Amino acid sequence: MNRHGVLTKDAVAAEGVAGGFATLYKVLSAFEDAGRCQRGYFIESLGGAQFAVASTVDRLRSYLDGVDPEQPDYHAVVLAAADPANPYGAALPWPASSADGTARPGRKAGALVVLVDGELAWFLERGGRSLLTFTDDPEANHAAAIGLADLVTAGRVASILVERADGIRSAARRAADAEAKALLAAFARTWVCGGGKPCPRATPSGTPRPRCGGIWPVAR
Question: Tens of pLDDT along 168-182?
Answer without folding.
Answer: 765 554 444 454 555
